[in-house]
Design a protein that fits this description.
Length: 365
């Protein structure tokens, strides 16, 4: 009732404007990002603690591994080495000092290369990134295509063949596939180049991203691009086989679950083309679990290429991690572990944000 006339008050508050809804959605996204960043920092500190602790619990004498047995027998040399790298201090003090350096993006000095660990990682990460991006791109395209075909042809011979292919891809060890492919295509058939990123004598392109194929394209060096792409093909294909099998099997299950939903039947009943139904409804509804798997697979490719890089003599993160671990280069091992942790945290954050754009039912506010 109106306070002045005693008549019913028919005035209503206007509905929120689209700009108001957009502002609230934007603020909700900012609050969500703020909470996630705080959580990410806490988890990052936990990763540094776990990495530091596990690295220092590894059996063996890092001083002897770094200096050699003859130098390690000289107490003066050992004492000088321990003081230089702070190994003469208690572990808690070493960890606090390590965190202090991390604030300034200083990962310490590698014992094996005598260069800053950050500089070594700057050289190794682009090489691994080049393999991982190529493998995950091919895996997503082929895996989703095979999964969609298998789901559409479920129970038929096509479905059985694709399921067998995915099972073989997941079951065969990656290192065995790498050895077999290198022996067959390089040693026996001679249709693939040798190990490394470029043929000996081929100059590397000017460094922009550190990925030879992309840098060669940016510099317009087509012969270098062809050579780099040829060297990249075989290790990328080996990593693609396993990821394709995983994505095919998982995307098939996700598509089958969505195809049984009522809204998919309703879309077909309306006479919509199969292509429209797939891209507008099926793929979007099945995207969240598939996107999660893609993110985990990409993180695994970045951090799990040790054997493939060793077989193909690829100077990437996996080879650097193996050499550092075998020589007990503690700061280098911690640098690799920290990078892998940052990769997984970043991937999880990006995937969580994409959830809200793919499925409006997922709220980030």
């Amino acid at each position: 009732m109106s306070l002045h006339s005693g008549q019913p008050n028919t005035h209503q508050e206007p509905p929120p404007s689209p700009s108001g809804r957009g502002r609230r959605s934007y603020l909700g996204l900012l609050r969500y990002l703020g909470r996630r960043l705080i959580l990410t920092v806490i988890m990052l500190i936990g990763i540094t603690l776990v990495t530091f602790t596990l690295t220092n619990l590894v059996p063996g004498d890092p001083v002897a591994a770094a200096l050699g047995q003859r130098a390690a027998d000289d107490p003066a040399i050992v004492e000088r080495f321990r003081q230089e790298f702070g190994l003469d201090k208690p572990l808690p003090e070493q960890y606090i000092a390590y965190l202090g350096r991390l604030i300034h993006l200083d990962l310490g000095m590698s014992w094996q290369t005598r260069r800053p660990v950050a500089q070594d990682l700057e050289r190794a990460i682009p090489a691994t990134m080049e393999i991982a991006l190529t493998a995950i791109s091919m895996s997503v395209i082929i895996g989703l295509l095979f999964g969609a075909i298998a789901a559409h042809k479920r129970g038929r011979i096509t479905d059985q063949v694709l399921r067998l292919i995915s099972l073989l891809g997941m079951s065969v060890p990656t290192f065995w596939t790498a050895i077999l492919s290198f022996y067959l295509f390089y040693y026996r058939l001679g249709i693939a180049p040798g190990s490394g990123r470029l043929t000996p004598g081929t100059p590397a392109p000017p460094r922009v991203t550190g990925m030879y194929t992309l840098d060669a394209l940016l510099a317009g060096r087509w012969s270098t691009f062809v050579d780099a792409a040829a060297h990249l093909a075989l290790p990328s294909l080996v990593l693609t086989l396993f990821t394709v099998g995983l994505l095919t099997r998982f995307s098939r299950m996700s598509f089958l679950e969505v195809l049984d939903k009522d809204f998919i039947r309703a879309a077909h009943a309306k006479g919509l083309p199969n292509r429209t139904v797939f891209f507008r409804y099926t793929l979007r509804a099945a995207a969240i679990p598939i996107l999660t798997l893609i993110g985990l697979a990409f993180g695994s490719l970045l951090s799990g290429t040790v054997l493939v890089e060793s077989i193909f003599s690829w100077p990437g993160l996996g080879s650097y991690a193996y050499q550092s671990a075998s020589r007990l280069d503690l700061l280098a091992v911690m640098g690799v572990g920290l990078f892998v942790g940052v990769v997984y945290l970043t991937i999880n954050l990006v995937i969580d944000i994409l959830y809200g754009f793919i499925d409006p039912r997922v709220k980030v506010g």
